[in-house]
Amino acid sequence: MAAESFSTLRNTHGSAIFTGKLGKPGHQTNYAARFAFRSGAIGSELLQWMQSDPTLPRSAEQMKQAFNFARASNKAKQLSDGSKVQLMANTGGACCPKRCNGLDATAPAPAALAAFARAFKEVNKDALLRLHQKLIERLATLADSDLGENGRKLRDSTADDFVEKVFHFVMLQPMVPETYREDHKHCDGGASILHMGLSLYGERWLRFWEKDVDAPHEIRLPPGSVYISSPACFSHQVVHRDVKLPRS
User: Fold this and answer.
1) Distance (Å, whole) CA 34 – CA 20
2) Per-residue confidence of the chain (248 residues) as pLDDT tens digits?
3) Phi-psi bin for 68: left (phi > 0), alpha (psi -120 to 50), beta?
4) Which of the listed residues 8, 127, 175, 227 has the most CB atoms within 10 Å of its CB?
5) ∠ CA(9), CA(13), CA(19), 5° rounding?
6) What are φ and ψ of residue 167, in 5° steps?
7) Is 24-50+61-240 a domain of CATH 2.60.120?
C-alpha cells in the first residue's frame, strides 16, 4: 500500500489547543502546559488491512508470549489485570532502547502497525522537523537542573535523531470483549510527549481535563479512530464501553 494512503489523519474530527496541569492526581505540580489535541480517522480499507495483519496475535495469551510479558517489571505487570493486558514492542530503525514503562520492548511490532508509523513519519517529516526546532528552542531557555536527563537529551538531539525516535515504541492493549472498565486518572510519562492512539477493535472513550476545569472533554474512539496529542501534559482517563448492557 502506497505511503500516500497513510496520509495525515484524513476526515479530521477536530484540532484544538488546551492548557493542562502536570503531575499525578493528588501529587500535581504547579506547572501547566499548553497542548494540542487532534483527532481523526483512517479509511476503512486501511483499517481492514491493519486488522488482517497476520503478524498481529489474536489473543491476549499469544500477545503476552510474542511481546515478552514475562520480562516486564512487577509494577508493570500489576497494571495488567483480568480484562486488560499492556505490552510493548518497537517499530524498528536505528533507535533501539530495550525497555519502556517497565515493559520489554525488544520484540518487533506487528508489521502493519510498524509500517503505518514509518509511513506517517515520512509523510509528515516537515511538520516533525518544525516541532523539533520549537522544542529545542523552548528547552534552551531552561536550566539543566529543571530539564533533567530526558530534557537534556531532547534539547541536545539532532533533528534526524528526533524524527527517527518518534513513534518508536508501540504499546498494545488487548482487552476482553464486552467488558466495562475505567482506567485510573493519570498523566503519562515523558515517552508520551508526542503520542498517537489508534483503535483497531472495540470502542474506547477518552476523557481529558484542562487546568482548573472540573468537567472533562470526552471523545469516542471506535475502530479506525486516531488521535495525536501530548498526554504527558494533562490528566486523562480511558473508559472502555465495549459491552452489551442488559435490557431493562
Assistant:
1) 6
2) 333 333 343 434 455 667 776 655 444 556 677 888 888 899 999 999 999 999 999 888 899 999 999 999 998 888 887 778 899 999 987 777 788 889 999 999 999 999 999 999 999 999 999 999 999 999 999 888 888 888 899 999 999 999 999 999 999 988 877 778 888 888 888 788 899 999 999 888 999 988 888 899 999 999 999 999 999 888 899 998 765 544 43
3) left
4) 227
5) 100
6) 55, 35
7) yes
Contact present, 53 and 111 (Cβ < 8 Å): yes
Question: Domain limits of the chain?
Answer: 24-50+61-240
What is the DSSP secondary structure assignment for residue 186, as one 8-state letter? Answer: B
Asked whether the beta carbons of 41 and 224 are under 8 A apart, the reply is yes
Q: How many residues does the chain have?
A: 248
> Could you tell me if residue 92 is left (phi over 0), alpha (psi between -120 and 50 degrees) or otherwise beta?
left
In the chain, at which residue ranges do the beta strands (DSSP E only) sit? Answer: 14-24, 27-41, 87-90, 99-100, 103-104, 169-172, 181-182, 195-198, 204-208, 217-221, 225-229, 236-240
Q: Which residues contact 82 (CB under 8 A, 6 or more apart)?
A: 176
What's the number of CA atoms in the CB half-sphere (13 Å) around residue 198? 21
From the number of C-beta atoms within 10 Å of its C-beta (0-12, 13-18, 19+), residue 147 rates as middle
Q: Which three cell numbers stand for residue 183?
A: 482506567
| DSSP state at residue 172 | E
